[in-house]
Amino acid sequence: MTLVLASKSASRCAMLDAAGVEFDSIPADVDERAIEDSLETLDPAEIAIALAQAKALVVSRAWPDRLVLGSDSLVSIDGERFDKPASRMDAARHLRRFSGQTMELHSGAALSRGGNVLWSAGDVARLKVRDLSNEFIEAYLEAEWPAIAGCVGCFRIEARGAQLFETIEGDQFTVLGMPLLAVLGALRVQGELLA
Questions:
Q1: pLDDT at 35
Q2: What CATH number does residue 48 fall under?
Q3: Which one from 17, 24, 37, 72 is the annotated catalytic residue?
Q4: Structural domain includes residue 80
């Protein structure tokens, strides 16, 4: 049976498609903020994995015979977590806070079947944001909003988001929103991909 991706994320869909993984996209209906709030004592890496597990579990309960992939990402700076921007004004506030800082982008993934988590893992990338002028932020948002409304960190690295950074340390797939190489390995173990 075809894998189910518990997401409508364009970047996650594009990664799986480019890697030759057949899947159906069935977004998970979970209250991410409520889950984050209930886990606030955990570090960002653990929260990203917990969110990925929650998404996979919700969809796998509805489709118990299918293998479901959940994934989530979150951004932190000096321990402060940032959610997806709620508005363009919120995105501008985030970008001003990110300016000159190193953001940690935590990406988690989980596989579930029949309401049971079979596997989960996470990865982190460190992105050094250059000093951003107010003029740049306004021009950037004029070009990228609302496309980045659903993007933690207020960027699409495959688009103008690349202009935000001086350096990036970490796996390109993690930056795109999913630890793809680990996911592909787990799919091989589950017999979904040829070994």
A1: 87
A2: 3.90.950.10
A3: 72
A4: yes
Q: Residue 136 sits in which domain range?
A: 3-189
Residue type, 182: A
- With H, G, I as helix, E, B as strand and everything else as coil, classify residue 116: strand
Domain count, the chain: 1
The reported pLDDT for the residue numbered 168 is 98
Beta strands 68-77 and 102-113: pairing type?
antiparallel
Q: 22-38, pLDDT tens digit by residue?
A: 999 999 999 888 888 88
99 touches 129 (CB < 8 A): yes
First to last CA, the chain: 17
Domain membership flag for residue 194 = no
The answer to whether 72 is a known catalytic residue is yes
Could you give the angle at the alpha carbon of 11 between the alpha carbons of 116 and 66, nearest 5°? 25
Burial readout 142-181 (b: 16 or more C-beta within 10 A, e: otherwise): eebeeebeebbbbbbbeebbeebbeebebbebbbbbbbbe
pLDDT band at 116 (very low <50, low <70, confident <90, very high): very high
